[in-house]
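Standup notes, protein team

Yesterday: finished cleaning the Cryptotermes secundus set.
Today: Ovarian-specific serine/threonine-protein kinase Lok structure.
Blockers: none.

Input for Ovarian-specific serine/threonine-protein kinase Lok:
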Amino acid sequence: MMWSQSLPDTQNAREEIFSQEYENANVWGRLYATKKKFPSLDLSDDEYTIGRAQDCNITISYLEVKEDVLQTISKRHCKIIKVTPEVYLEDYSSNGTYVNSEKIGKGNRRILKNNDQISLAWPHFKVYVYVDASDNNENFPEEVRSKYVITRELGAGACGKVYLVFEKKSCDRYAMKVVQKKCFDSADRQNRCNSDKTMNEVNILKALKHPCIIRVEHIVDTPDAIYIVLELMEGGELFDRIQDRRQLKESEAKLIFYQIAQAVKYLHDNKITHRDLKPENILLSSEKRETLIKVSDFGLSKFVNSQSIMKTFCGTPLYVAPEVLETKGMGSYTAQVDIWSLGIILFICLSGYPPFSAEYQSLPLNEQIMRGAYSFQRRYWRGVSPDAIDLIRKMLTVDPKNRVTVDEVLCHRWLEDKWLEETFQELIKEEQMASQGGVPVDEHSPPRKQLRLDGEDTHTV
């Protein structure tokens, strides 16, 4: 990113800009970058222009975006204007400037509100979140507010919400899940009041390191809620990919499933049972067919009891093992519940429909699950290999004692595939390089002085 004012392009510069955020009384707003190579910025002047022209306040070049993306950015694409008490975003580009995915239109302006998201050229190319400097996040505990700026709501469920947050010192992006303790039963709430026990569990979660598990950055425990700050994944959920494509190709499903199984093995080896595995909790690094996945929400198994998960987080028992349904979440059971969920996930990936459903009229849903009453409909399974079907059968075994373990899953002949392991290792290597700023160079890329964004941060977001 090139600037009209002289700023060193270093992490230290970013920290310097934001270390004085409370000292500069003239700051009326902030732009928090949602792209890795775009800088975040305090707003104190009356106008800020964004575009390709060198005299723009924020100049976009091929150092930040790929050349085909850069061609869609106008020399003067848009302008942020402060006219007290309002803040406006004015669109100068025929390609469009978007606020919350809605096009402003060339020559038009729109009032910017707190936590609005700004996109350039097309709705999915999101570059900034605008934050009103007067918003001090008073609804969040001091321990959270002192370290993070809480911006947009990313999602919501029965027991809490997920927010996009920015770490104040570095401006790095994270997802923060807020879980309300009212979702716990009385015995579990009492356990949660034991701060020593909670912090012990927090330390266990933060110590977990695996390429296919969402990284836990920070957990804040309060009397009413638990705030879990997590690595941010922007490639979408496995659920959405299945919805869009209906049926995944077997090679694509195999790569995704293999990674999920690797994550589950790591959790089980560390004496942690996920208990809520489902496509909504499998996050993708990119929209490519061959992409790294990460299992999320495993931390909730340390904080929420099984009955709460079954009632609240699942909503439907679609992914819940028979032994959990049989005791209504009150009995004791083993990590084998995760294997059942793995079987459901693989079944849906390969066929596009669930093995059990309330829409099937033969038996009530709970009875279907407890009997293991499912079938492989020929028209959906015609092109799927017998080995894949065999693995599903072994995972969807009603008796957990006869169900395969995660080690047996990973040793199954369907996963005996040299390409699988090589591709997995390459995806890990790519992520490590990207996290260190070492994105591989495209041979067709223009000459450059510093690293560009990878594909995740261009038009494929």
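Follow-up from PR in the comments: The first strand starts at residue 2 and ends at 3.
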